[in-house]
Design a protein that fits this description.
Length: 673
């Protein structure tokens, strides 16, 4: 039987990515989009309980409705594939000014809200506690006096349970807050991308109260506290003195607990007592410490000579400000309350909702099929890379080793299907109707779990498993595919392979390609820095320059795409498209490529592959958004995520018979991977 902490630390994570575009000859269809289609009938509706014949029929109608078949696909394939997005009656009206991935996300969010609003008598289960918390958030008063009262009523219980002896009282008082607030000598437990474990960090004190005081929120809080607010000015001065005792610098050391205690045995700080107070008797000699403070003399003297009241009050005020920020951001206007409460319920009860989500939206067939697609694309990446003659043998060996060692996490860990495990994870939590009290309970639980995470090898949550996304984490060499991204109309297990690889497959390939983009190539299979040989590096940078020059020529309303800033993702877009196409052709395209799988559509599988890629990036954003995106975002705009990769793919030009020299078949093509 798993302990509660073991159950919590077993949990892996999921993540997010991007996609690309393509389409087909204008002569194949008429450009009339379907009329009088109710949003309720669209294939965005989840879960997608639909038989294969209906699925193929609806998918064909949907894909056709997005297209502008009067546009020459060899001149602007994005417009050809997505030009009717904003007018399509098969796109929910609320999503026509947004993107296809965000429309799917909105549908998932609404489903989760519906689940959380559906009351249950099983209030002691993980799902029941999640619903109870969500309900308390919906009904919570905006009057933060209730939050202040809840915390101040518990002040003695929260901040009074410490036995002071007069010696090293500051150490005991530093750890009196149960909410991960240790501000006198800041200490935290963080995931290290170097060791791939949770390590202890010792940091310099920072000016939190001062920064808070300079905001409009502080005026409201101090007014509500009345006479108690006079303490705040005292604490501001205390914080100023506290932060001045440790000068800013570049000092950093990383030692095991055993090494740290030896190295710092002459410090004025009693480190044995510090670690025992924070972690009890569980301290292990092999734990790692990261320390940013080079000299503790002035800090220790200040803390030792400060009154216990000042020390206690500072911890109290830091805790109060932490929660005040949560109170203010968690309670928006009523029209946004449902979605904000959903976000926070997902955050606190991620694994309490998972069994329901898996049952309704991510069955075993969907997970296994998504995993097969991912494994196939990774194998293609290996095969393509091994054939590159521009890589010398040593560099190729490192690249191949990195791809061979890449992990793929699709959907969820097997254990998380079981309600028994999720119930166990939240077994100690008492959740009731008081939202303010619930927050105290959940934040204390989060802090407790984090303190028990030291030296644990756990993948920390990077994105919500419900997000419509994918992700590559270079420090653990892992590609994540969330449950949210494997939904209609992007993906369904019964779709033809051309659509599965053109949509989901391309997104997965995109994320895997980040392992060898203009940043990732420097990191080896262990997540550590690696230097390529001179010749291989020179060839690699020449390929990057070619791609940079291409993307610099993408201009919208006079605003130029920055090919250098967007380079990591440009490499991923181009590589992901090539990997998905290569995988599709090897397994299906050679035999099924000329078949026409969607009733009523004359497009072949090979053509549909590229159309699906393009439609994955359909967007109805206005010009203001597009211009701002091009100016500030590290990703090329959606249109260029399609045009760039397809212009570099001879297979696309062959499929759509684009003459050499046309917009979609330029003379010069760029390939990195």
């Amino acid at each position: 039987m798993l302990s509660k902490f073991s159950a919590l630390l077993i949990l892996g994570s999921l993540l997010s990515a991007a996609a690309i575009l393509a389409a087909e000859p204008a002569s194949k269809q008429n450009s009339t989009s379907p009329k009088n289609v109710s949003v309720d009938d669209t294939i965005f509706k989840l879960p997608s309980a639909i038989d294969e014949d209906e699925l193929l029929h609806e998918m064909g109608l949907f894909m056709q409705s997005l297209m502008r078949l009067d546009v020459d696909p060899c001149e602007n394939f994005y417009e050809y594939a997505c030009g009717n997005w904003k007018a399509s009656e098969r796109v929910p009206s609320s999503g026509r000014k947004d993107s296809i991935l965000r429309v799917i996300q909105s549908e998932i969010n609404d489903l989760i809200v519906g689940f959380l609003k559906n009351s249950t008598k099983e209030s002691k289960t993980a799902e029941g506690k999640a619903k109870t918390f969500y309900g308390s958030c919906l009904s919570a008063s905006k009057d933060i006096n209730l939050g202040l009262k809840t915390m101040l009523d518990n002040e003695k219980e929260i901040f009074g349970k410490v036995k002071l002896t007069g010696k090293n009282d500051w150490i005991a008082l530093n750890f009196i807050s149960p909410y991960n607030v240790f501000p006198l000598l800041p200490m935290s437990v963080n995931y290290s991308t170097f060791s791939r474990q949770f390590e202890i960090s010792i940091n310099r004190p920072i000016e939190v109260l001062k920064n808070f005081y300079n905001t409009s929120q502080s005026d409201e809080l101090l007014q509500k506290l009345g006479q108690v607010a006079s303490e705040f000015k005292v604490m501001l001065e205390f914080e100023k003195n506290l932060t001045s005792k440790v000068p800013h610098g570049d000092f950093m050391e990383r030692l095991t607990m055993e090494e740290y205690l030896k190295q710092h045995e002459k410090d004025p700080v009693d480190w044995h007592l510090v670690f025992k107070t924070a972690f009890g008797d569980s301290v292990q000699s092999e734990w790692y410490i990261q320390n940013q403070i080079g000299n503790f003399t002035d800090l220790e003297r200040f803390l030792r000579k400060s009154s216990s009241d000042n020390l206690r009050n500072y911890v109290k005020w830091r805790t109060l400000v932490k929660f005040y920020k949560i109170w203010k951001t968690d309670l928006p206007n009523d029209e946004k309350r449902e979605q904000v409460c959903r976000q926070h319920t997902e955050s606190y009860f991620t694994y309490g909702i998972l069994p329901w989500f898996i049952e309704h939206l991510y069955d075993a067939e969907r997970r296994e099929d998504s995993l097969r697609i991912a494994q196939t694309i990774l194998l293609s990446f290996l095969n393509i890379t091994e054939n590159y003659s521009w890589l010398d043998e040593d560099t190729k060996s490192e690249v191949v080793s990195k791809l061979q060692a890449m992990d793929i996490m699709v959907g969820y860990k097997d254990e998380m299907r079981h309600r028994q495990l999720s119930d166990q994870i939240y077994a100690d939590l008492e959740i009731g109707g008081d939202w303010y009290k619930n927050l105290l309970t959940l934040e204390a639980n989060h802090a407790r779990i984090r303190l028990h995470s030291v030296h644990k090898t756990v993948v920390p949550p990077i994105l919500s498993p419900y997000s419509v996304n994918a992700f590559y984490a270079d420090y653990i060499n892992t590609a994540f595919v969330t449950m949210g991204i494997s939904q209609m109309p992007l993906y369904h297990p019964q779709l033809p392979a051309s659509l599965k690889f053109g949509g989901l497959g391309m997104l997965i390939g995109h994320e895997m390609a980040h392992a060898l983009d203009s940043n990732g190539y420097r990191i080896n299979y262990e997540g550590k820095p690696y230097n390529w040989s001179g010749a291989s590096l020179r060839h690699f940078k020449e390929k990057i320059r070619c791609l940079e020059n291409q993307y610099n020529k993408f201009i919208y309303h006079g605003i130029q795409t920055n090919g250098l800033v967007t380079m990591p993702d440009n490499i991923a877009y181009n590589t992901g498209a090539r990997l998905a196409y290569h995988s599709y052709m090897e397994l299906y395209g050679r035999n099924e490529g000329h078949e026409r799988p969607l009733p009523g559509l004359e497009f072949t599988n090979n053509e549909l592959f590229f159309i699906k890629m393009a439609q994955t990036w359909c967007s109805g954003r206005d010009d203001t958004f597009k211009v701002q995106h091009i100016k500030t975002d590290a990703h090329a705009y959606a249109e260029f995520r399609v045009l760039g990769p397809l212009r570099n793919m001879p297979a696309f030009s062959q499929t759509f018979q684009c003459r050499l020299g046309s917009q979609m078949n330029p003379l010069k093509k760029c390939t990195v991977w």
